[in-house]
Amino acid sequence: MKQPAFRSSISGKTMSLCSIRFLFLATVLSLATLSARAQDILIPMDIRQSNHLKAYGIVFWLLEQGETVDWLLNYRGGSFLASGFNGLEQELQVREVQFERIGTGASARIVAEVESEEHNTAIVRLETAPNIAVYAPEQTLPWDDAVLLALEYAEVTYDILYDDKILEGHLREYDWLHLHHEDFTGQYGKFLQYRNIPWYIEQQRETEQMAARYGFRKASHLKLEVARTIKEYVGQGGFLFAMCSGTDTYDLALAAHRTDIVPSEYDGDPVDPDALSRLDFDMTLAFENFTPVFHPAEYEHANIDAGPPPPALRNQAIDYFTLFEFSAKWDPVPTMLTQNHVATLKGFIGQTTNFRKAFVKPSVVVLAEAPNRDEVKYLHGNFGEGTFTFYAGHDPEDYQHYVGDPPTDLDLHKNSPGYRLILNNILFPAAKKKKQKT
Amino acid sequence: MKRTFLPIRSWIGVVVLTAPIWAPAADAAGQQQENPQIVRFRLADTFLRSGQFDQAIGLLEDLYAEAPRNDAFYEKLKEAYENVKRYEEAAALVKARLVDTRSAALLSDLAHIRYLQGNEKDAHATWQEAVETAPTDPNTYRVVYRSLLGVRQFERAVLLLEQARSATGQAALFRVELAYLCSISGLHEKAAEEYLALLKENDQHLNFVRSRLGSFLEEEEALASSLAVVQDAVRTDPLYRAWRELLGWLYIEAEDFGNALGEYRAVDGLESGQGRMLFEFARTAADAGAWNKASEAYREVLARYPDAPAAPRTLAAFGAMHMRWAAEIGERTFDETGDRVNAPHYDEVLAAYRTFLQQYPNHELYPDVLHRIGRLQQDVFLDTGSAESIFRQVVSIFPNTRAADQAAFDLAGIAILHGQLDDARLRFNRLIERLRTGDLVEQARFKLAGIHMFAGEFDAAQSLLDIIDTHTSTDVSNDAIALKILLLENRGPDSLDMPLRRYASALLAREQRRPLAALDSADALLSMYPGHALADEARFLRGEILLAAGRGQEAYETFAEIPLMYPASFLADRALFEAAGILSRESGKREEAIAAYRRLLSEYPGSLFAGKARDQIRRLRGDGV
Question: Would you say residue B610 lies in a domain?
């Protein structure tokens, strides 16, 4: 796997603050290059930003150009600092991204402020554009995929992989893998009511054919093998981001590796009567001690999902979740994943809406929760050399996305805090966690 | 004693499950509810539903031991064993029954269990054995087919049903089942073949076939395969109407309007439809923007069936289609110097409508078509005299029609064009009084407000605009609001509101198609009141007039100087956008156009045109975003 190079956290800018003499010398020495790089560009990510989502795309674009970008964690909503160069401003304008030209002196002052011990801020240098893979079938399914929408809108390049590519070992070519509305249990999303609709029939047929091609009798066996391969990828240093049912069904499939939790309506044979006692929670990434839902017509895979909010709160005007604040200098990874211009975000429902806190493994870091409900919206954890991040809900800007609904137009949600959380994840692999302060 | 499970079980499974229970109970009439077996059976069923499999199986085993020939007990016990994956016991249960009777149903049960056990080879051998119990009886195949469906063995099921046909000698057996099975298995060619055969047997099934096939046509492969099969079929029997109509429909689904036309033409000929099918095709093609093919179809209807009942509507639709076509391609009837140029689509519209009037003088569409000609003369061919004469005809010959109301409105517009503002005012007022409400009334009010403005009666204009303003659901509301703001913000500096009068004169001259006079008025305003609040609007109007007159370079210069002279003007960003647009339309000025759009983004980042400017930059850069 390609590992992004990492530069020391003590950047040239902070070093220039070491002494006035050094600053003077550095200024003199850099005079020759000032004409080429007279200004830095600050991309603020607070409420003044005109298009937060495209800002991530610009950072990604800069990394692809071979530039480095400093991510100023907790500074003005998680702003970005880049060297100005010919064409950058124009690109920022074209992509509607608000920016500020700042002189090198001002730039150094910002860096010093961010690195100061007085503030809960830190700098992470982003150096290499991560290779991104999205796990999605070729078949067009009648619901939107929030990450694909975010990547498309932000103009971030990615490849689409599905079961065949994963089983053939292509995951190692990527730094980041995204899963969205996927069902790793082989129950086709538990969309039993759509079983006579062509997209469902096609999905089931293609999965069965794929399973047969790789020597599996059932879709659940194929999906389990895919889940295992992804877990192996994470263990070897991959970054996994999953949303909606791609989260709990992933762990559910792994936990059920030695039993059958799929009702006959989906695979032709019944659930193992001893399935509950045969679940293996040592295999899962984020959840434990949960119970699968065996009813074939119940649109739920396990009790991991807390489901939609109680009726009194099932209103997009009052349903929300809150982000935790982490120490930027001590916990840069959770801090990166929670960068936002707001601390309270609109809730949104999905097949998996929120995770019940009782089933979250103790080793997992909770990044966001639904207040007063013992429910987790967003979590992060490590496995082996890699990490995983699970984000519950289907579409941050469509409170309740139904099958057949049109995809969300992100041009109408340029500042979406919910979508920002997705895009934090694509930049996170561009950085490497620096040595923890002790 | 030989028992026959097969026919009963294959007919209605639900009945089979309950009937045998009631049969012994019938001997003791009146005691059915108290039958302890029934009570235990129900209890077992409740246990099964609640997942208490062990209790259910215990009860069912006892019941089955007491009544081993009871089909319901057998079925439920087998189901219970399968539910807990006790496949060996389920198989033993079936095998015990097979000792007495080797029926297709029991063998299928056994095959099913073997498949669930993962023993696919034995399962298929057993299904085959089931078939061999009565290989010429279609019910045998039905039982085995359903067993195969239970474990999603669709392709095996397809083979089985084909085998059934050859074994029974009934080539049409399982037609619908086979077609559907093929579709869900991705065997689209076979599915199409079955549907064709179904149609051959009964052409009344065309809608059913279209509905069944249509649901799978989103898959490209399904469409291509179905097309190929139906094409072949039509080649073998080109005179079979239902096949050809199906093929025409498939071509339309594939957006191949050329071939679709051929099929609809053939269908029309086969059914002596007098152009009905061709007309339907033409409308579909026109709606899809397949103008050439739509035009061809319309022409053909008109040429081949001039006396058909559909001919008048076809002619009117043909004209309307060319109107849409001309608008889409931006066809012009005059060049920049004002000379008439060839405009084939508009000419076609005019010719079609004139023919209509000539051939169908008593048709109900006559007033409407006559009015359409008037509008064409006025708006496209700029022949006001001819338009006026036509509108007068519509009003006098066809009073109290919608066309007459429209014509009355248009006559008032022509009065403005001639500078007869009082006459126009009178006409609009009459229309408002007569109709009272509706879109046309709102438009008439807006026009009246404009007349007041042209006449320098700004207060009267504002009063009328206030009325329109309250009806924000109408189309003219936005225009009314804009005009109202113009009047509110640009009165003075003298009591006569001279700059506003000049500006109104320029607007009137433009409406009267007198661009030079309009330019003179705008220029006069700019030279006499260069610092007035209307200066930016006058300059923008100047740019618009020049652009409409084909004086692109001058228009560009006019637009480009607006942001320089009036950087704070609400028109500055729009003027810059217009200037960039002129550059981008001119070949070789791509970079200048991009620079102009970028200037808009830099200087007016909050502009409503920023999004469009970004799109234009990307289009000019060839970003493909």
Answer: yes
From the CB of residue A110, how many other CB atoms can be counted at a distance below 10 Å? 22
Cα separation, B161 vs B190, in Å, equals 13
CB neighbour class for B303 (10 Å; exposed up to 12, middle 13-18, buried from 19): exposed
- Both A107 and A61 in one domain: the answer is yes
Q: Which of these three, A126, A151, A177, is where a domain ends?
A: A126
Print pLDDT tens along chain A (438 aa): 333 333 333 233 333 333 333 333 233 333 333 333 458 999 999 999 999 999 999 999 999 999 999 999 999 999 999 998 888 999 999 999 999 999 988 999 999 999 999 999 999 999 999 999 999 987 767 677 898 999 999 999 999 999 999 999 999 999 999 988 889 999 999 988 888 888 888 889 899 999 999 999 999 999 999 999 999 999 999 999 999 999 999 999 999 999 999 998 899 888 998 999 999 999 999 999 999 999 999 999 999 999 988 887 788 888 899 999 999 999 999 999 999 999 999 999 998 999 999 999 999 999 999 988 899 999 999 999 999 999 999 999 988 887 777 888 998 999 999 999 999 998 888 885 444 443
Same domain, B617 and B558: yes
Range of B526's domain?
490-550
Residue A45 Cα, gap to closest chain B Cα (Å): 17
Query: Closest approach of chain B CAs to the CA of A349, in angstroms?
Result: 29
The H-assigned helical ranges of B237-383 are: 241-253, 257-270, 276-287, 291-304, 311-329, 344-359, 366-375
Give B-chain residues touching A155 at CB under 8 angstroms.
Answer: 625
Which of B51, B150, B218 has the CB atom closest to A198's CB atom?
B218
The residue segments making up the domain with residue A33 are 12-126
Mutating which of A269, A271, A274 best tests the B interface, going by the most B Cβ atoms within 10 A? A269
What is this model's ipTM?
A: 0.72
Contacts of B149 (CB under 8 A, 6+ apart): B157
Shortest CA distance from B185: residue in chain A: A205
Are A31 and A99 found together in one domain?
A: yes
Domain stop point among A102, A126, A150:
A126
- B151: nearest CB among A98, A199, A268: A268
